[in-house]
Amino acid sequence: MTLIPFLDLDTVIYLLIFILGWSIPLSNVLLIIFYQNQHIGWRNVTRLLVFSTDAGFHFAGDGKLGGIVLPNDGRCHLENNMYTMSHYYDYPSIAHLVQKLSENNIQTIFAVTEEFQPVYKVAMLSISSKLPEGVTITYQSHCKNGVVNEGESGRKCSNISIGDEVSFNINITAQGCPKQGKPESIKIKPLGFTEEVEILLNFICECDCHKQGIKNSDMCHNGNGTFECGACRCNKGRVGRQCECRKDEVSTEDLDKNCRKDNGTDICSNNGECVCGTCECKKRDNPEERYSGKFCECDNFNCDRSNNKLCGGHGRCECRVCICDANYTGSACDCSLDTSTCLASNKQICNGRGNCECGTCRCTDPKFQGPTCEICPTCPGVCTEHKECVQCRAFGTGEKKDTCERDCSYFNLIKVKDRDKLPQPVQAFPLMHCKERDANDCWFYYTYAVNNTEKEVHVVETLECPAGPDIIPIVAGVVTGIVLIGLALLLIWKLLMIIHDRREFAKFEKEKMNAKWDTVCPKKKKKKEFKTGSRNLLFEPVLEFLFLDFPKFQDCFIRSVVFRFTSAAF
C-alpha cells in the first residue's frame, strides 16, 4: 500500500483505492505529485518527498505487455481525481523521474520494506552524462570536521547542519578537442537547491608550439614522426616515445620481456601497456593520481592513510611510500615529533615517568596515568583528595554539597550494594580502595580508578554508622558493679577482722603462757582506817577482780566486792 499524505483528502482516498484495486504504477504517482504543486502549496525552496510502499514499480517498456507503445509525455492527465491516460501512454522511465525531481528541486526518501530495498536502491545519475564529448569532471569535497572526500564520494557531504560550511573543488579535463570546437556550457548545482553554477568551456585545440613542429624530425627515430611541443607525434604505423617501433612489433615476446620487472610478474605491473618494449602507464580519472616507474610499479595514491587522509595530510605519497613533512614520521605520517603536547605541569616531558611517542605520553611507571602521566590513582593522599566529592555526589553531604555539580563532575560515579561488589585491582589499570569517615562518624567505602582518560568511582551506597547506646545493659552493668564492689569491700573487711582477731588471740595465748598465776585464793587484806576531822571514816574497800584460769582454780571465783563505808554518823 502507498500513502501520499500531502495531497487533498479526496485525492488521497482515490489514489489509495486506485492503487489497491488496480495496482497503479508508482512512477505515475510520482509524476502526479510533480504536477500537483498548486494543490500541495510548496514554496520555492528545497522540497522533501517521503515515498512509502511495500511493492515494486513499473517503468518504461512494461506497457508493451498491454499493447501500449507511446512513451509517457510527462504530464498529469488527472481529471476528477482520475488518471485518464493509463490506456494510452506507457509508464515513465527512471530518467524521466530523475529529470522531474531535479526540475522541481525535490529530494526523495524511499521508505520501503526490506523485501524491496534492492529494487529502490538506485544510484544517482551522474551529471557526466550531460557533459560535452571528451570532457570529464572530478570532484573533491571538504566537509565539516576536516573530512575530505575524493572520487565518487567527492560529490557529497553527509551530516550537514544549518550553519555548516562546506566547499567543493571541481576539476574539468578535456581529453581532446571536440569535433565542432565551439564553446560548451556546463551547469552544476546541489541537489534540492535552485542555485546553480554555469561554466563556459572554451577549448584550445592548437598551441603555438604546434605551429613550430618539425616534420620527419631526426628526434623521432630517423624521421618517423613530427617533433612538436617537446614530444614526438608519430607517423601512421609507428609507436613509441620516439616512434622507434612499428605497431605490428609491439606484442612480440622479446619486447614484452623489457616490460616485466621480474620473471613471472605482470607486464607493466598490470598498470600499463608495453609499447615497443617500454611501459606506458595507464591514466586515471583523477588527474592528480598517476602511475609511475619504469614498470609502472609505483603510484601516488596507494599509501597508508590516517584520519581518512593520504599520508595523514602531513606528507606526500611517492611509489606507495609516504614521504613525511618535517616533525612527522610513521607509515602514514601520523606520528608527530612535537613534544609540546607531552609537557606536564612541572615542565617535564610526561612528568618524568614516561616517553613521548607521536605526541602522546606512554607512561613507563604503571602507577601513573593520564595524558602527561600525572594521574596516580594509588598514590598516598588520593582517598583524602576525592573524599568530599565522593561524599557529596553519593550521599549529598559534606563540605562541597552546595558546589557539587561545579566542582565534582570530573569522574563517573557508580553505586554498588555492598563492599563485595567493589572492583578489585587488575593489571589493566591501577585502582585504589578507600575508607573514609564523615562528620557523623559514619564510614563509607569506595574505589578510585583511571581507565585511560575516564575516571571511575565505585561507592557502596549505604553508610556504616555506629549503633546507639543500649540503656538497659548499661544500667544493669552499673548496678551489678556497685553490688560487686560492696560485696568485695565487705569481704575484705571481714578478712581483715579475722586476721586481726587471730593475731590478738595469738598474742593473748602467748601472754597467758608467760603469766605466773597463784594457785590459791588470795588472802584478805587488812582494813585501812582514814581519819578526816571529827569523823572517822572507815573505808574498807576490797576490790578484788580476779581473772582466774578456770581449769586450775575452779574453787576460786570473785569472792566479793565489798564496799563498806563506816562513819561516825552511823
UniProtKB/TrEMBL annotation:
<feature type="transmembrane region" description="Helical">
    <location>
        <begin position="471"/>
        <end position="493"/>
    </location>
</feature>
<keyword id="KW-1015">Disulfide bond</keyword>
<dbReference type="InterPro" id="IPR057243">
    <property type="entry name" value="Integrin_I-EGF_CS"/>
</dbReference>
<dbReference type="Pfam" id="PF08725">
    <property type="entry name" value="Integrin_b_cyt"/>
</dbReference>
<dbReference type="InterPro" id="IPR015812">
    <property type="entry name" value="Integrin_bsu"/>
</dbReference>
<feature type="transmembrane region" description="Helical">
    <location>
        <begin position="12"/>
        <end position="35"/>
    </location>
</feature>
<dbReference type="GO" id="GO:0045202">
    <property type="term" value="C:synapse"/>
</dbReference>
<keyword id="KW-1003">Cell membrane</keyword>
<keyword id="KW-0966">Cell projection</keyword>
<keyword id="KW-0472">Membrane</keyword>
<dbReference type="InterPro" id="IPR036349">
    <property type="entry name" value="Integrin_bsu_tail_dom_sf"/>
</dbReference>
<dbReference type="GO" id="GO:0098639">
    <property type="term" value="F:collagen binding involved in cell-matrix adhesion"/>
</dbReference>
<keyword id="KW-1133">Transmembrane helix</keyword>
<keyword id="KW-0812">Transmembrane</keyword>
<comment type="similarity">
    <text>Belongs to the integrin beta chain family.</text>
</comment>
<dbReference type="GO" id="GO:0019901">
    <property type="term" value="F:protein kinase binding"/>
</dbReference>
<keyword id="KW-0732">Signal</keyword>
<keyword id="KW-0479">Metal-binding</keyword>
<feature type="domain" description="Integrin beta subunit VWA">
    <location>
        <begin position="2"/>
        <end position="207"/>
    </location>
</feature>
<dbReference type="InterPro" id="IPR002369">
    <property type="entry name" value="Integrin_bsu_VWA"/>
</dbReference>
<keyword id="KW-0677">Repeat</keyword>
<dbReference type="Pfam" id="PF07974">
    <property type="entry name" value="EGF_2"/>
</dbReference>
<dbReference type="GO" id="GO:0005178">
    <property type="term" value="F:integrin binding"/>
</dbReference>
<dbReference type="Pfam" id="PF07965">
    <property type="entry name" value="Integrin_B_tail"/>
</dbReference>
<dbReference type="Pfam" id="PF23105">
    <property type="entry name" value="EGF_integrin"/>
</dbReference>
<dbReference type="GO" id="GO:0030027">
    <property type="term" value="C:lamellipodium"/>
</dbReference>
<dbReference type="InterPro" id="IPR032695">
    <property type="entry name" value="Integrin_dom_sf"/>
</dbReference>
<dbReference type="GO" id="GO:0032587">
    <property type="term" value="C:ruffle membrane"/>
</dbReference>
<dbReference type="GO" id="GO:0098609">
    <property type="term" value="P:cell-cell adhesion"/>
</dbReference>
<keyword id="KW-0517">Myogenesis</keyword>
<keyword id="KW-0401">Integrin</keyword>
<dbReference type="InterPro" id="IPR012896">
    <property type="entry name" value="Integrin_bsu_tail"/>
</dbReference>
<dbReference type="GO" id="GO:0043236">
    <property type="term" value="F:laminin binding"/>
</dbReference>
<dbReference type="GO" id="GO:0019960">
    <property type="term" value="F:C-X3-C chemokine binding"/>
</dbReference>
<dbReference type="InterPro" id="IPR014836">
    <property type="entry name" value="Integrin_bsu_cyt_dom"/>
</dbReference>
<dbReference type="Pfam" id="PF18372">
    <property type="entry name" value="I-EGF_1"/>
</dbReference>
<keyword id="KW-0325">Glycoprotein</keyword>
<keyword id="KW-0597">Phosphoprotein</keyword>
<dbReference type="GO" id="GO:0042470">
    <property type="term" value="C:melanosome"/>
</dbReference>
<dbReference type="GO" id="GO:0007517">
    <property type="term" value="P:muscle organ development"/>
</dbReference>
<feature type="domain" description="Integrin beta subunit tail">
    <location>
        <begin position="383"/>
        <end position="470"/>
    </location>
</feature>
<dbReference type="GO" id="GO:0007229">
    <property type="term" value="P:integrin-mediated signaling pathway"/>
</dbReference>
